[in-house]
Amino acid sequence: MVAHLLSLRWRVMLNGFRRSTWQLIAAIIGLLYGLGILALLVGGLFALSFAPETWAWTVGVLGGSVAVLGWVVVPLLLRGVDQTLAISKLRAFPLPADRLLVALLACGVLGVPGLVTLIAGVATGLSWWQHPLSLLTAVVCGVVGVLTCIAASRALESLTSSLGAHRRYREVMGVLVFVPLILAGPLIALAGTGLSSLRDDLPQIAGVLSFTPLGAVWSVPGDLALGRPGEAGAKALIALATLAVLLLLWRVGLRAALVASPGAAASGRSKGLGPFRWFPATPTGAVAARTAVYWLRDPRYGGSLVIVPLLPVLAVFLAATTGSDWLLYALGPGIAALLAVTLCADVSYDGTAFAAHLSTGVSGRADRAGRVITLSLFAVPVVVVATLVPLAVLGELAKAPALLGIGLGVMLTGFGVSSVASTRFLMPVPAAGESPFKSPQGASLTSALGMYAAWALSFAFALPEIALGLVALAQGSLLLGVVALVVGVLLGGALVVVGVVRGGRSLDQRGPELLARLRRASGS
Amino acid sequence: MSDLGSPVPPDDTATVRPPAVPEKAPAPGAAPATASATTAAPALRIAGLRKAFGPKVAVDGLDLTVPLGSFYGLVGPNGAGKTTTLSMATGLLRPDAGTIEVLGTDVWSDPVRAKSLVGVLSDGVALFDRLTGEQLVTYHGLLNGMDRATTALRVGDLLDLLDLREAGGTLVVDYSAGMTKKVALACALVHAPRLLVLDEPFESVDPVSAANIRDILHGYVEGGGTVIVSSHSMDLVQRMCDHVAVVSSGRVLAAGTTDEVRAGSSLEDRFVELVGGRQHAQGPSWLRTS
Asked: What is the pLDDT, as a whole number, of residue A20?
């Protein structure tokens, strides 16, 4: 059965690639990228063997602890990302829980993340090739460590599976996961600058972690090499006990999940027509209202916005720590540039539900306009506030017209460009109800290309106001700034209209083809 | 325009009526040999329809005429091209060749007018399921260009009619499969179309709701509307539809009134006879437990 489930899992993944050559190419690029990172990691671990033993030990314990933590936290956040072997699907088969546990463990190790962790874990042995005993223990500990990772992840997942049945919880978690991901870059940068002062503390942190379930298993080889056999033995016991407890917990959770009834999620009720009351009762108004509901309710839309409130935080943070306040000036235009191309994915987000627009014969122009209206309703105020507030705080309101001109100009131009673009190419997006973080294979490459093209076009069309604004800023000219603002709003507004009309015409002509591609994308 | 807006009687005589007066339309071209040839344009006329997906021909020269005011069943094995045909007839999928007319309007040269005459329930497409049931039906009404008052009135009536009033405030994503079908049917009805095209409307609908839906559809046909349903259930089609077409491998094998097509035997037997592929085996020996 182990082999059976394993082959099923890989089969599902490989079949996913066969659906499109581009997906395959993107997957191969992703694979090469991943292999490159892995090679760097392995090389680094080998290099550590030439450093003092304490270094290798510290890196091993810290890195290993992070890996275990990641295995626990990430699946909790990304619940439902890999549902290939979800218990709910296996429940129908007469599988004994114990054998299923072994099978799932094996599948976990031999899946992509499992293999990566396994290689990295076993490669810690390279740090100890000068200490044969440590080298041997490191390989064993690497395997135990990976098993711990998978058991921990699965145990927690099956124990909290009742939570995961609630749609709202999944959605909120799915959006929240973006926060650490977006902050990861700056945090690492900050950690880098703070690392020099922290360096002396790292061994101590590792020392503490090495006695916890997170780091114990990764500490054993180093302890042996450093001549602490007693500690090594204690930690080995901690590690094995951890694995045993986790497996036990997992088994309990698995047994419960195998007989649980398919969870009927409690449904949230909302009353009334909501946005359908606020917008005019026309096809355009209806599309705007529907889009408004989706911006509020569909985590995939919210997910694309979560970066917006985080940018000011980052800007203030960087200004406070490094003293450079250019990010505060760039806040408004930066957010504008981000929001400019959000519409590109709109039709893709609709999925096959787009058939409703097609079967009612709503005009493409109304479709385009409705989407732009809703986005503008919050995007324009956000950009204005994000531009004005920092400038007011800095006492530089004279720069406001130029920056507003650039920001609004780029954003409106972007609305126009993406109104056309989203009728021409589809972005691979997660289907409705899936985690917003889940990117279908191949998404990274093709969608990034389309997005960048739309972005580049937006900047190109907005060049007049960008140039005017920059000159105004450089010369400190208020008059030129006002000219930039006027040009930005007028030119941008005109381009929105052009975009809506041309996008609408394109939608009228290519609607059925678009739906056919949406159907293919959704796999039906 | 329609009396959908009138208060729905509390008993089961509730009906949905399309606009009652059939327009004078040019006489149909070569009307195939259906028993009930009318002088007005048929509700749906398909001629020489073709559609291929890559090397696979899904619809292969299909001809079909659906008379005005008929309750038309479209039956066929899996993969026969039913959904593909209905998608093309409702402007959702562009045919490779052939013509499709709805009440004399060519679907692919005047799609907006044709679509305003047709109500569609598609199989295998998603709904905007983050809307509540009430919002979703309202959305379809407004997309059809109806005003707010009419939309509100009809949405209320349809929710009552389909027993969805209580679930009107619940997100469609949380509906059961049967409720989802019902709300999709409400979306198809809200603009009072002259022709209803329903792809598998009874799939996963409970018997009580199915009976209610049948009543609604019968009332709609009595009011002058035309209904096309595709279904796997021969029994249902035989009882419900006055016309039927058997489709297989993208062609019409037989079409006409239900009595003509089944020719004395039951529709199911006739269907199996026409389509073939029945295996007279008792299954593998290991499956026999006694």
From this structure: 66
- CA–CA min distance A439, chain B (Å): 20
For residue A352, give how far its alpha carbon lies from the nearest alpha carbon of chain B (Å). 5
Looking at residue A279, what DSSP letter applies? S
Q: Which pLDDT band, with edges at 50, 70 and 90, does A266 fall under?
A: very low
Mean pLDDT of chain B: 81
The pLDDT value recorded for residue B254 is 87
- Using CA atoms, how far apart are residues A204 and B45, in angstroms rounded to an integer? 82
* CA A213/CA A170 separation, integer angstroms: 27
CB A450 within 8 A of CB A427: yes
- Using pLDDT thresholds of 50, 70 and 90, give the confidence band for residue B2: very low
Would you state the structure tokens that stand for residue A424, as one six-digit string?
């021409």
Q: What is the pLDDT of residue B12?
A: 42
| Confidence band of A261 (pLDDT split at 50, 70, 90) | low
Domain residues of chain A, as ranges?
2-259, 278-522
User: Is the pTM higher than 0.80?
Assistant: no
- Residue A103: pLDDT band by 50, 70, 90 thresholds? confident
What's the Cα-to-Cα distance from B49 to each of A11, B94, B250, B252, rounded to whole Å? Answer: 37, 10, 9, 11
> Domain containing B267 — which CATH number?
3.40.50.300
Residue B289, in any domain of the structure? no
Least confident segment among A210-224, A447-461, B19-33, B40-54: B19-33
Who wins on pLDDT, B1 or A59? A59
Give me the long-range contacts of A266-272 (CB less than 8 A, separation at least 24): A266/A166, A267/B170, A267/B171, A267/B174, A268/A167, A268/A168, A268/B170, A268/B171, A268/B174, A269/B169, A269/B170, A270/B132, A270/B169, A270/B171, A271/B169, A272/B134, A272/B169
| Domain housing B258 | 3-10+41-275
Question: At B243, is the secondary structure helix, strand, or coil?
Answer: strand
The answer to the question of residue B33 being in a domain is no
Report B:90-109 residues touching A (Cβ under 8 A). Answer: 90-94
Please report whether residue B218 resides in a domain.
Answer: yes
Using an 8 Å CB-CB cutoff, list chain B residues near A356: 127-128, 139-140, 143, 187
Residue with tokens 């026999």: B288
Instruction: Please list, in sequence order, all residues whose beta carbon lies within 8 angstroms of the beta carbon of residue A516, skipping any fewer than 6 positions away.
Output: B93, B94
DSSP string for residues in A375-418: HHHHHHHHHHHHHHHHHHHHT-GGGHHHHHHHHHHHHHHHHHHH
Q: Distance (Å) from the C-alpha of residue B116 to the closest C-alpha of chain A? A: 7
Could you tell me if B126 lies within 8 Å of chain A, comparing CB atoms?
yes
Beta-carbon contacts of B165 under 8 Å, excluding residues fewer than 6 positions away, are B159
What mean pLDDT do residues B26-48 have?
Answer: 59
Residues 6+ apart with CB under 8 A from B149: none
Q: Is residue B154 part of a domain?
A: yes
Domain count, chain B: 1
DSSP E strands, A52-209: none
Tell how many helices (H) and how many strands (E) occur in chain B: 9, 10
Decide if B188 contacts B92 (C-beta within 8 A). no
Phi, psi of B9 (to 5 degrees): -60, 150
Do residues A91 and A158 lie in contact, with contact meaning Cβ atoms separated by under 8 Å? no
- Residues of chain A contacting residue B173, judged by C-beta atoms under 8 Å apart: 167, 432-433
Under 8 Å between Cβ of A175 and A247: no
Token code pair at residue A62: 């810290």
